[in-house]
Amino acid sequence: METIKTIKKRYSYASILFKQLVITEFKLRYQGSVLGYLWSLLKPLLLFTVMYIVFVRFLRFGEGVEHFAVSLLLGIVLWSFFTEATSMGMRAIADRGDIIRKINFPKYIIIIASTTSAFINLLLNLLVVLVFIIINGVDIQWTILLLPLSILQIYILALAIAFLLSAIYVKYRDIGHLWEVFLQGLFYATPIIYPLALLIDNASIVVAKVLLLSPPAQIIQDARYSTISQSTGTTFGLIDNVFIALIPYLATLAIGVFAVFYFRKRQKYFAEQV
After folding, report:
1. Shortest CA distance to 120 belongs to which of 14, 29, 227?
2. Do the Cβ atoms of 252 and 157 come closer than 8 Å?
3. Could you tell me the end-to-end alpha-carbon distance of the chain, in angstroms, rounded to an integer?
4. CB contact at 8 A, 118 and 22
5. pLDDT digits (tens, 9 = 90+) for 45-66
6. Among 188, 46, 68, 193, which Cα is nearest to 125's?
7. What does the alpha-carbon distance between residue 153 and residue 105 come to, in Å, rounded to a whole number?
8. How many CB atoms lie within 10 A of CB 60?
9. 131 has pLDDT over 70
10. Which range scores top for mean pLDDT: 34-48, 59-73, 190-204, 250-264?
11. Whole-number CA gyration radius for the chain
């Protein structure tokens, strides 16, 4: 009985700490800002506006693609969450060094709290996407019920990468610069600002299939398929071999398992290294 009480007390404390970290993280993000929490909605909208003007109006990306403007916005929102969650999660342990040195608690709470703060932003931004879907007259199908699965997958992927990067970042701060460069490359290798159909027409369907083996690309395309248009190319739609099509899903799982293992192995050294 004493053991059960101890476990309950420990997880009750962890729950309280988690809530406080999420609230603090969310408040600090917009501290001293005139618009405050509105920036969580304005940032992706402003980015969408710039990309829409440049790539859709001037460069004519997405011509002939059904509801491409909404697809672009959804892609930007999901990508913004992925970059925010992984980048913030990577620095979370190092930024909380004072707490780690003073208090003994499960270190994974810091990473989960950091990514949860980004996840709240994602949910708010998805409400904006919903408004655009209604305004653009998108025909909502039953497949929209599959959207939570894509959201769950991108959160698991971002959380796993945050666990892995945070453990590395504590000792090697160079990983922050490398990850920033990697994200830039991955952004252009993901069909966000250009439709997949454009890549198939001007490059090769093989190139399109290879790009869709990336978990972020697969998730964004699946989300567009379930929410906006069933004509959107997806991993299972373009790749006939089911085992190859499963690669991005299995990659998400593999990254998650390895990240948890590595984080648990390194967490005992965090207090000394931060």
Report:
1. 29
2. yes
3. 37
4. no
5. 787 788 778 777 776 676 777 7
6. 46
7. 27
8. 10
9. yes
10. 250-264
11. 20
